[in-house]
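Progress report, Aim 2. The chain analyzed during this reporting quarter is listed below.
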Amino acid sequence: MVTRDWYTTDEAARELGLAPSTIRGAARRGVLRVEVVAPRVRAITREELERYRGETTKAGAIRSPETAWPQARRGMGG
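Predicted structure tokens for the chain:
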């Protein structure tokens, strides 16, 4: 398995099985630390992603990646 150091908000959303808007909302609320790496480009470190996963999993908010984005697996976009 390849481990990445940084994720875009869309990549983090896929990794966590959440909508990108959920990730952006968490960043706006200060619940998830997101770094500005270029104009209009935000990135999340692996450590921050795992911290957020741990905190939100306790609350039952994150679905497993296997159940996330079913439309993408069916070829209906994503």
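Residues 45 and 54 are 14 Å apart (CA to CA). The domain at 6-61 is CATH 1.10.1660 (Multidrug-efflux Transporter Regulator; Chain: A; Domain 2). These observations will guide the mutagenesis work planned for the next reporting period.
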